[in-house]
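User: I've been going back and forth on whether these two constructs are worth ordering. Before I decide, could you fold them both?

Assistant: Sure. I'll take them in the order you sent them. The first construct and its structure tokens:
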Amino acid sequence: MQQPCSNPDRVRELPLTAGKAADEGIFGLTQAYRGFVKERPGLYAATVRSYRLSNPDDPQLAQAEGQAFEPVLAVLASYGLSGEEAVHAARGPRSVAHLLATLEVEGGLGMALDPEESFVRLPWAIATGLRDQRS
């Protein structure tokens, strides 16, 4: 498995998802997200709340969001999703990565089970659901 994205300034490029589609892209997204949470927890925390709640008319934030969302939409397009369907679907990998990475950083995955297995199983469940949805 490849290493997570280590440079949050390049998050829009998400090297793990570049040119990857479907399941491989879902795994790349969750691993990149995990790497960002672990390597830059303070910066990550600042990204959790939508800018739309406090600065809805900020064009720079809107542009940054669009750039960061491009690789996510590209992966979801490989499942045949676009528009609102893709936005709803994007919440799955983000939620799983947020949950697991936050628990990992905060020491909440202390059971005698390998957290890596969870980082495989949950994205796999999402990928399976997306594949089944397009069938």
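The second construct, handled the same way:
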Amino acid sequence: MTNHPNRSARMPLASDDRSIISIGNAVLTGQNHGGWFVGPFLSNEARIRHTDAVEVKWGLHMAGDVRTDVNDDAGMHSLAILITGTFVIEFPTLGEEVMLSHTGDYVLYGPGVAHRWRAIDASTVLTVRWAARESQ
């Protein structure tokens, strides 16, 4: 982030700035929301992080963590990007699975695609979801 010449990087934001800029730590900010730190499920006090346009999650997964229930994120596109670790996303109705094993590996899937996941190693995954347009 570029520093404004009249503002120190450590200077607190004015209350008016908080509606257009949000600074924080994704781990800490999302800890009470399952890692989700931007989206519609946050209270209005989250200001700019409270939005219906996109959902963003910083997922921290221990080695061996598994989500066995299948989720289809109805109406949402999903993008999962591996930051660290080894992470598998399964698409049981398609008979496919994707292993994310290198930083930056990603999988993008459309609305209604059933999936579940498992962490092979301790993994950090950034997930972004957004609503599909009616015409898609």
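Notes on the second construct follow. The first strand starts at residue 36 and ends at 38. The chain has a mean pLDDT of 86.
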